[in-house]
Amino acid sequence: MKYDFLIVGAGFAGAVCAERLAASGKRVLVVDKRNHIGGNAYDRHDENGVLIHPYGPHIFHTNSKRIFEYLSAFTDWRFYEHRVKAYVDGGLYPIPINRTTINRLYGLDLNEQATVAFLESVREARGTVSTSEDAVLSSVGRDLCEKFFRGYTRKQWGLDLSELSAGVAARIPTRSNDDDRYFTDTYQFMPAQGYTAMFERMLGSPDIEVRLSTDYNEVKASIECGHLVYTGRIDAYFGYRFGKLPYRSLDFQHQHLSDVERFQTTGTVNYPNDHEYTRITEFKHLTGQQHQGTSIVREYPRAEGEPYYPIPRKENEALFLRYNALAETVADITFVGRLAQYRYYNMDQVVGASLKAAEGLIQGAAISEC
């Protein structure tokens, strides 16, 4: 059978493109080497009946009304504001750092204005903010940097703050009030029936065929299609011609506690200085599921394994740009998604990039048919 589009990957990027293209009347084939849809956002019930995220917590948040309304066509939502605490010096403190964090950590009683003054007094001015160390020190000073950021970064990235681009640390704000939400986006929700159910609806069109446990490289010669949408590693597509783009991986160690209804007070607890793992997430906070037991996951960063996080360094971006330039010379292929664009995208950013890519493909198809 001939397809208008072949899409490699059934995660957010692939599913959004497939849904939009099928809605425009195109015949689409989606292949994925894993045995499930949803990519890293895939969720399932464990053997004890608790809904878990096998690839670590995925919390949806966005400021884009358009993206939220688009996904709302495929899921009902559960309102959820994620909260994170950091285990530091034997205590649990809100992260991002806020007024509560500072008052409890230092035994102070600062109001909001005094908290602003405190942060101003401990900041280390940087003429140029080029690294994550520059960003953190110029924001919260050295003591808070050492307590909350340096150790976590070293574990997560295998690099010191001084070796990472400033944008990594810029993702986490500092607050002078008591707002302890991890995100402040307008729309903060979780799919009420889970991510997998949402993906099933996105890929449910009769004009979409999905083949799982299918390696694109093993079947590409036998599939006839008009255009390829590739959401995998851009360096892998080109046979690592210029070398591999660096990634950090994770080892997820899941555990079920049958006699514990709640393991921790927030969805996630970070461990910047203790243990080999970076954080523990308890899924029932995220999903709102009622269950007599609970399931948690510990995340251990690794240098090798599945590619989860592009490592934001100048030399890595330069290598990606070489691959991107090569991609622009190849006809009838669109590269989209975190792996294909070597970007530390949030889920809503992947959806936005994929909607844009699909719209361009649909418009191009319409022009070619005129």
Automatic annotation (TrEMBL):
Any single Gene Ontology cellular-component annotation: cytosol
Root EC class: isomerase
Cofactor: FAD
Source taxon at top rank: Bacteria
InterPro entries per record: UDP-GALP_mutase, UDP-GalPyranose_mutase_C
Residues covered by the UDP-galactopyranose mutase C-terminal domain: 147-344
Key words, A-Z: FAD, Flavoprotein, Isomerase, Plasmid
Gene3D superfamilies referenced in this protein's UniProt entry, alphabetically: NAD(P)-binding Rossmann-like Domain
EC number: 5.4.99.9
GO molecular function annotation: flavin adenine dinucleotide binding; UDP-galactopyranose mutase activity
Family stated for the protein in its record: Belongs to the UDP-galactopyranose/dTDP-fucopyranose mutase family.
NCBIfam families: UDP-GALP_mutase
Name of the featured protein: UDP-galactopyranose mutase
